[in-house]
Amino acid sequence: MRWFFSLLVLICFTVTALVGGVFFTNYQNFGQLLQVGALIKSEFLWPVQTGKMIEGAIEGLVNSLEDEYSVYMNAEKFQELQAHIQGTFGGIGIYVGLRENKITVIAPIEGTPGAKAGIKSGDVIVKINDKSTENMDIDEAVGIMKGEPGTDVKVSIERSGAEKMLDFEITREIINVPTVEGKILEENPDIAYLRIAMFAGNTDEALVEEMKKLTDQGFKAMIIDLRDNPGGDLHTVVNIAGHFIPAGPVVHIVNNNDKTETLPAQGNYIKVPLVVLINGGSASASEILAGAVKDTGVGTLVGTKTFGKGIVQSIFFLNKGAGLKLTTAKYLTPNKNDIHEKGIEPDILVELPEFTPEQKEPLKDTQKEKAIEILEGLINK
What is the pTM of this model? Predict the structure, then answer.
């Protein structure tokens, strides 16, 4: 019974440390948990590992929240998450989320195998390697798509407007995400173009370098492209927003006690005409920046409605290399608009033309063209 004593001590210690008096008001439920553990250990047909049982219990605690963004990760999965946050990871190069309980592509990453294969924002992944994704969670789906570079994975999707399911055979690669890229537009040297692919931990530093290069070349207006940017680090996007909006709130963070923390910009921002490109793949931190630009009136949003993820996850480091990603707050735009599951509407709605198999010429980027048109009008006033 040594294992049982260890399990009892561990659970009692954990519960007491985390929730205090809750243990005493729910002692029957905790007793039932221990009873089930004892029955499994004594009566289950095959041997079981106590550590694995405890890990399963922890996963059950988190899953009971019924929050797709809150996840317990063992050491291996947590290491993958940290690599992802740093901007380097293996796989096919797509970001996925849950929409109506379906594994849905938030955005493909530019230049990656998934993007080159033709996977698009909004595609619903119905099978991976011929395994149905019905009732599959995000971590399992991502885990199957990841693998050794050079190996293949089959992704089957449903796409709005397509008459049948589309199958993609994709070769995995190491994914290195260039988070910021800037250039002066050839078609109009007065306009700088800044593409932010995600908000990794070092994206604000990379942006400073890109801004210096652009400033040295000179420009009179700017386009910030947040299309298919799935988000990232909260403090990174607040730092970046400070380059483009005046002094005042960037975002309001509201915790579970309804306490609000306002994260401000300092006011050292560039004062040039600004257009921000958005679409359904612009999520989370992207929506913080887009919402700040819209509410402060310093720029124009062009494109289509954003994804609508207005909640914040915190990362907690646990013992033995494990981790917990937990929804701990929601965020509001500077004008205190809650955009969760609503998204942000563009100031000017512009759809991209639909790709067809018969297409021979490259598709026109009508959203970028509209941004240029707007800025040229402002420059020439």
Answer: 0.73
